[in-house]
TrEMBL record:
It holds the Pfam family MGH1-like_GH. This is Amylo-alpha-1,6-glucosidase. Residues 21-200 form the Putative glycogen debranching enzyme N-terminal domain. GO terms for biological process: carbohydrate metabolic process.
Length: 714
């Protein structure tokens, strides 16, 4: 494979004082003045490797005082600084501009502006170092020298390389006007009175001796560079929302911008976008995260969902490998290309996830419902069948009818659901659950996968008998789930079954996912809905991952009491599916309020403190931002509040809005529905009008057969 992806495991995040720039498989973490400081997680990264670990500008051997940073695009920032006053002067006269563009490396345009009336002689240096540390090492703070390092320099060029385990990583720094020496570029400039001086530096990754073409070549205007063109096209192609609420408008705009920035492109199919999990450490195709993000953002860009499905299908497991946890039919957890990742995981693709495989089939079903490229989805049906075979053979190893996980070796993730921290699954008394573990939400995903496969059989294969068989499997699973997961003495569903098939009896948000997938018995849905909105679970900013009454509860933990926006978004969708519109609206408004408090950008997670305790949401210090499924959550929540669902195979567009008055009037144009583009308006009285529907699609307030809730069990 050529150009590749990146990913890291559990988030450790970066300081909110840092500037993060991202584009494809490159990202840069810097000080607000633009420097990359040694001994920190800062740096320029490409394909899992830090190709710059130090990048420090000095003017006349002095630091530049930062003034501000202007970052208008995800890949671009302008750092403004002031040179310190010259000897004998009280005021500085030299302004320093560092215009940085990140993409397949980095370009930095340097400008010195002399605001004085006398020419300024300047000695500008850039200290440059590259440790070629793996992203895992940097994120976990365990960087150490590895392999053989080399430095080469000449006129305007400084090159650094490292050889390790038969692989070479390098960087080439080019600055025509610079004098280059090991670890440093030197510029000498005389800036005229009221004049400027300019220079440009290109930083190019070198992988196994081959240079990666830069995204921002000097000979091409920045607005014509690939990232600029893709960003402009993304913004022009999607739906447009007009609402009376400025906060909602700002949040949706920020979500759209961040999702566009988190797109990466399949190196083997450059026109195929997929969504990475998040910045800075998750710029990778990541099975679970990418699928859930695609599902939530599907009304924004169906091609993003299709591309994600296509690329995951190409990496679907074919053999059994205990080191990478690959198994036939299994959808991968993450794709990585750093040298250390290959050594640690046994390969560049790691498969340690229990939920990506049923979620993959759910995604194909949703693509079918939205009428996205039916032929392309039909081509993926063999992959859907391999996924279903994995669910029933490898996912259910003991034949009890439930999908469970247990890592194959000590290298793998101990927990392989979305709460994948080591202590993410525990009982009400705080005991860590022992594997193999059958998670409640995973059974829901499998239930939904069966129903999705039935839809695909019926409408893409004309196989009514096959569809009936898949629906029967869904019904049987639902019955087994009710019998084993419902806790009558507690009044909620178990979070999981442990290795001894005992219920893990914690009150957790997982059962909200079970509402979303329709596996919950309608007769018990009210109890679930009320529990999710109880003071123990609902913080006022969203639904906690774990109730305050549980022994392991900690509002500052990663998975045991924090609030994850995407989790709350899924809960809201589940509540709406079962008709609890008031509950769903409370959750949706709470999360959107949190987004407003964060300036329109939802972080990966926030602390689970109650809104009555603190008037603003408390940030989780290591949360990734932007993060894909958090960015997609506002788009998803608007759909929830509209009560909107689409099923072109059944000819149904359902809209039952329950919107806050402040949002009205609301108009959405250019909504992709099959090959058509529709517009939807909700007026001040809550009346709905839809125009531009494709032929055969009718507006109704009745649920689609795909998502209709089965009647309560007898």
């Amino acid at each position: 494979m050529g150009e590749g992806w990146t990913f890291a495991g559990e988030a450790t995040g970066s300081s909110s004082d840092l500037v993060t720039l991202i584009e494809g498989s490159s990202f840069c973490l810097s000080e607000r003045g633009g420097d990359l400081v040694a001994g920190t997680p800062q740096g320029l990264f490409h394909r899992d490797t830090r190709i710059l670990s130090v990048w420090q500008l000095r003017l006349d051997d002095e630091e530049v005082d930062p003034l501000t940073v202007i970052a208008q695009e995800p890949y671009e920032a302008l750092f403004l600084g002031r040179a310190r006053p010259r000897p004998g002067r009280s005021e500085a006269t030299v302004l320093v501009e560092r215009h940085r563009f990140v993409g397949a490396g980095m370009r930095e345009d340097l400008v010195l502006r002399n605001l004085g009336n006398e020419a300024a002689a300047c000695h500008l240096t850039l200290r440059v170092e590259a440790d070629f540390a793996d992203l895992f090492e940097v994120k976990e703070g365990r960087v150490q020298p590895r392999g053989q390092y080399g430095v080469d320099y000449g006129d305007g060029v400084l090159a650094m390389t490292r050889q390790w385990h038969g692989q070479s990583r390098g960087v080439r720094v080019v600055a025509e006007d610079a004098v280059c020496s090991p670890g440093q570029l030197t510029f000498r400039a005389v800036v005229p009175p009221r004049g400027t001086w300019r220079a440009s530096v290109l930083v190019t990754p070198v992988i196994d001796g081959e240079e990666t073409p830069t995204s921002f070549p000097l000979e091409r205007p920045v607005e014509q560079a690939g990232p600029s063109v893709r960003t402009s096209a993304w913004r022009q192609s999607g739906p447009r929302v007009r609402t009376a609420d400025e906060s909602l408008s700002h949040t949706l705009g920020r979500s759209c911008q961040d999702l566009g920035a988190l797109r990466i492109f399949d190196p083997e199919r450059p026109d195929t976008p997929v969504v990475a999990a998040g910045a800075p450490w998750f710029m990778a195709l990541f099975g679970r995260d990418s699928i859930l993000t695609s599902l939530m953002a599907l009304p924004l860009d169906p091609q993003l969902a299709l591309g994600t499905a296509q690329v995951l299908a190409r990496h679907q497991g074919t053999v059994t490998d205990p080191v990478t946890e690959e198994e036939p039919g299994k959808i991968p957890h993450e794709l990585r290309f750093g040298v250390e990742a290959s050594l640690a995981l046994g390969g560049t693709v790691y498969y340690g996830t229990v939920d990506a495989t049923p979620l993959f089939v759910m995604l194909l079903g949703e693509l079918c419902r939205w009428g996205v490229s039916p032929e392309a989805v039909r081509e993926l049906l063999p992959h859907a069948d391999r996924a279903m075979a994995w669910i029933e053979k490898y996912g259910d190893r003991d034949g009890d009818g439930f999908v469970e996980y247990r890592r194959s070796t000590d290298r793998g993730l101990a927990n392989q659901g979305w709460k994948d921290s080591w202590d993410g699954v525990n009982s009400a008394d705080g005991r860590i659950a022992e594997t193999p573990i059958a998670l409640a939400e995973v059974q829901g995903y499998v239930h939904a996968a069966y129903r999705a496969r039935a839809l695909l059989a019926e409408h893409l294969e004309n196989d009514a008998a096959g569809a009936a068989r898949w629906r029967q499997r869904a019904r049987l699973l639902r019955e087994r789930f009710e019998a084993r997961f419902w806790l009558p003495d507690r009044g909620w569903y178990a979070e999981a079954l442990d290795g001894d098939k005992r219920p893990v009896d914690a009150l957790a948000s997982n059962m909200g996912h079970c509402l979303w997938t329709g596996v919950v018995d309608a007769g018990r849905a009210r109890a679930v809905a009320d529990r999710l909105l109880s003071p123990e679970m609902f913080s006022g900013w969203g639904v906690r991952t774990l109730a305050t009454t549980m022994a392991a509860y900690n509002p500052m933990s990663y998975h045991n009491g924090s609030v994850w926006p995407h989790d709350s978004g899924i809960v809201a969708a589940g509540l709406m599916r079962y008709g609890f519109t008031g509950h769903a609206r409370r959750v949706a408004e709470a999360v959107l309020d949190a987004a407003a408090a964060f300036g329109g950008r939802l972080p990966e997670l926030l602390c689970g403190f109650d809104r009555a305790e603190y008037a603003r949401p408390v940030p989780y210090p290591a949360a990734c931002s932007p993060q894909a499924w958090a960015s997609a959550t506002p788009v998803h929540l608007l759909r929830v509040l509209l009560g909107a669902e689409v099923c072109l195979p059944h000819g149904v567009l359902r809209v039952r809005p329950d919107l806050p008055d402040a949002f009205l009037p609301l108009r959405i144009t250019d909504i992709p529905l099959g090959t058509a583009r529709a517009s939807l308006t909700v007026d001040l009285g809550g009346r709905v009008e839809v125009t531009g529907l494709p032929s055969g699609l009718r507006l109704t307030d009745e649920p689609c057969p795909c998502t209709a809730v089965d009647p309560p069990a007898a």
